[in-house]
Structure formats: C-alpha cells, structure tokens
C-alpha cells in the first residue's frame, strides 16, 4: 500500500496491544482535504496522581509528532484548575508546540463541559475554513468530573483516552464512549 502511516489512527487502533500489521492506517500522498486532530487534555488535580498527567502529556506529544509527520492540523486545549486554556488553536502541526506540552503543570478542578464547548466551537470554525475537512477529537482524561458532558457533534471521529485509576476506576470514560459511539482506549499505565 502506498502513502505514509497515519500514526494517530494507527495508535488509536493499536490501543495497549503490541503493534501489528492490522493496526496500520495509511494516508495517501495527495493534497487532499485538511485534517484536524483536536486534543483536549485534562490537567486537573486528579490527573497529577499516579503519574497520569505525565502519561497523558506523553500521549499528546506523540499525537502532535505524528500529525507533524503527516502534515495535518493540530489544536491543543487544556482544562483544569486554571480553567480552559488554548495551547494552540487549529494550525498546521509543528514540533514547536512540544516544549509547551512537556512543561504543563496541573491541579484544581475539572471544567470538562466548558472545555468541550470550546472544542465544539473550534471544530465548527475549522469546518467553515475547510469544508471537506476530517476532524478527530481526542479527549485525554481520567473522567473524574461530576459534570455531565454532551457529545461534541462536530467531530467526525471521537477518541476517549481513559487515564482513570486502574486500581479504583470510576468507568466514566467508558460510559461516555458508549453513550457517544466513540472509540475508548486505555494507555499503558504503571
């Protein structure tokens, strides 16, 4: 098969399993429609426990790296004790965002509903600029929020990466994924 490996989709298909040929997703080398990977990263206080925030930042960094190689667009949105903050609005992926990701701290509450509201607005704006664009929303969280988020309807594909405590899981991320028809993934946890 020609083209390049589409790493964000490949990593999503792979999950925690060892990489196999069946997990590989390919992109064709063409100047086709734009693609956006919108990463919504939970940096609340609960994510600081057990190294979950460090794992989530590493996961987000890998997504940015792969989007840079694939020539796609990336947006990165944080939500935690400092509220909802954009690290980068939708733009062509660049490795220059990686130091900002690695330097992120965490703490405080989990304004998930507001984060998804802002993500929805960014998805809509990207669609207006790139009518035939593909938009994937990556929600990286432990699900430890009392808020009841609604499905971000303007994402073509939604992946929830569940960083919940494996020893005492709440299961909210899986519930959201089932309710929204989203992909649900667990990263490797210590």
Description:
With 190 residues, the chain is α/β, with parallel strands linked by helices. It has a single domain, classed as von Willebrand factor, type A domain (Rossmann fold, 3-Layer(aba) Sandwich). It is 31% helix and 25% strand. The protein has five helices and eight strands. The protein has helices spanning 7-14, 52-70, 98-102, 112-129, 172-180, and strands spanning 4-5, 26-27, 35-42, 73-80, 83-92, 134-141, 157-162, 183-185. Strands 5-4-3-6-7-8 form a six-stranded mixed sheet, sandwiched between helices. A two-stranded antiparallel sheet has the order 1-2. Strand 4 and strand 5 form a beta hairpin. It is globular and about 40 Å long. The N and C termini lie far apart (36 Å).
Q: In short, what is this structure?
A:
The protein is of the alpha/beta class and 190 residues long. 31% of the residues lie in helices and 25% in strands. The protein has a single domain (35-185), classed as Rossmann fold.
Give the number of DSSP strands. 8
The CATH architecture can be given as: 3-Layer(aba) Sandwich
The pLDDT mean sits at: 86
What is the spatial order of strands in the main beta sheet?
A: 5-4-3-6-7-8
Counting helices, strands and paired strands, the structural category is alpha/beta
């Amino acid at each position: 098969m020609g083209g390049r490996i589409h790493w964000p989709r490949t990593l999503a298909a792979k999950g925690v399993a060892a990489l196999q040929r069946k997990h590989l997703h390919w992109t064709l080398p063409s100047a086709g429609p734009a693609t956006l990977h919108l990463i919504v990263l939970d940096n609340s206080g609960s994510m600081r426990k057990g190294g979950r925030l460090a794992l989530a930042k590493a996961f987000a960094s890998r997504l940015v790296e792969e989007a840079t190689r694939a020539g796609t667009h990336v947006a990165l949105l944080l939500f935690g004790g400092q509220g909802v903050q954009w690290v980068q609005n939708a733009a062509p992926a660049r490795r220059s965002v990686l130091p900002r990701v690695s330097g992120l701290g965490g703490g405080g509450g989990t304004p998930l509903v507001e984060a998804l509201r802002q993500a929805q607005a960014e998805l809509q704006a990207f669609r207006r600029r790139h009518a035939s664009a593909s938009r994937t929303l990556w929600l990286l969280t432990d699900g430890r929020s009392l808020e009841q988020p609604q499905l971000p309807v303007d994402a073509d594909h939604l992946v929830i990466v569940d960083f919940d405590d494996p020893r005492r899981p709440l299961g909210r991320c899986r519930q959201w994924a089932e309710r929204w028809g989203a992909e649900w993934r667990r990263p490797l946890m210590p």
